[in-house]
């Protein structure tokens, strides 16, 4: 399966007139369902306003909320380590539920300029600007997702041409078939997992604001994920 994940970044509107091919499945995040009508799944957090959700669903369309994605992300270590942004949550849910071979991202760059539009619909609230222990390094969370995807035989690529916090290789629709799971370091990946297990910052509900985290330890884990994905520094 080739999966397209559509975020709400300004670049996401490029997909509005794309043909369905080469994608087999489209997963929209939050407001991105408005970009094209043929999405398959819409994923959103508990506080996504009802009046922004689609009213009429096709039989093939599903709404994915916290009852679906919290168990999925917990299966990959939880929100503290995996990153509490919907882009990464969508990734882990997709790896868990859809088992794709390729995940291509558009509008998920998580770059929010001080001037100009931050989202395809204008100005919006940006998750990565929150003071959250899981968002200290978006690049490390990206590398972590890349490692877990590679373990599952899935390649992650970024279709955006804009500046991005995602560390995935750049791609185009026509070059998707030429991308394969990244070469990750299994020893470093195992070391990062052991360190996560020792810290045990588990968040079964998805909420973790109560955790008095050892940020030094979290930063050390982030550095390991970057190295495991063979990324010597932040993108």
Structure keywords:
single chain, 235 residues, alpha/beta, six-stranded parallel sheet, 6 helices, 6 strands, 11% strand, globular
Describe the structure.
The structure is a single chain. This protein has 235 residues and is of the alpha/beta class. It contains 6 helices and 6 strands; from the N terminus they run ββββαααβαβαα. Strands 4-3-2-1-5-6 form a 6-stranded parallel sheet. Helix 4 links the parallel strand 5 and strand 6. The longest helix has 14 residues. It is globular, with a radius of gyration of 17 Å.
Short structural description:
By secondary structure, the protein is an alpha/beta fold. It has helices spanning 66-74, 79-82, 86-97, 138-151, 186-199, 215-228; strands at 2-6, 25-29, 41-43, 62-64, 102-106, 155-158.
What order do the helices and strands follow? EEEEHHHEHEHH
**Largest beta sheet: what is the strand line-up?**
4-3-2-1-5-6
Mean pLDDT comes to 90
Biggest sheet layout: 6 strands, parallel
Helix content: 25-40%
Radius of gyration: 17 Å
In oligomeric terms, what are we looking at? single chain
Shape: globular
Please specify the SSE layout and strand pairing:
Blueprint: E1 2-6, E2 25-29, E3 41-43, E4 62-64, H1 66-74, H2 79-82, H3 86-97, E5 102-106, H4 138-151, E6 155-158, H5 186-199, H6 215-228
Parallel strand pairs: 1-2, 1-5, 2-3, 3-4, 5-6
């Amino acid at each position: 399966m080739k999966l397209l994940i559509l975020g709400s970044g300004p670049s996401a509107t490029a997909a509005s007139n794309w043909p369905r091919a080469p994608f087999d499945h489209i997963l929209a995040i939050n407001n991105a369902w408005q970009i094209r009508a043929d999405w398959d799944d819409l994923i959103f957090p508990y506080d996504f306003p009802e009046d922004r959700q689609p009213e009429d669903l096709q039989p093939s369309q599903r709404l994915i909320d916290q009852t679906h994605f919290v168990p999925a992300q917990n299966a990959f270590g939880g929100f503290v380590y995996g990153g509490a942004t919907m882009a990464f949550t969508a990734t882990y849910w997709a790896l868990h539920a859809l088992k794709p071979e390729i995940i291509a991202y558009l509008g998920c760059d998580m770059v929010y300029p001080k001037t100009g539009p931050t989202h395809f619909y204008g100005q919006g609230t940006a998750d990565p600007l929150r003071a959250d222990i899981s968002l200290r390094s978006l690049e490390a969370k990206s590398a972590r997702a890349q490692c877990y995807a590679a373990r599952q035989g899935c390649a992650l690529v970024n279709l955006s041409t804009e500046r991005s916090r995602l560390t995935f290789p750049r791609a185009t629709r026509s070059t998707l078939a030429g991308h394969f799971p990244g070469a990750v370091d299994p020893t470093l990946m195992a070391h990062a997992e052991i360190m996560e297990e020792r810290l045990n910052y588990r968040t079964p509900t998805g909420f973790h604001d109560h955790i008095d985290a050892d940020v030094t330890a979290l930063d050390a884990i982030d550095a390991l994920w970057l190295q495991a994905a063979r990324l010597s520094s932040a993108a």
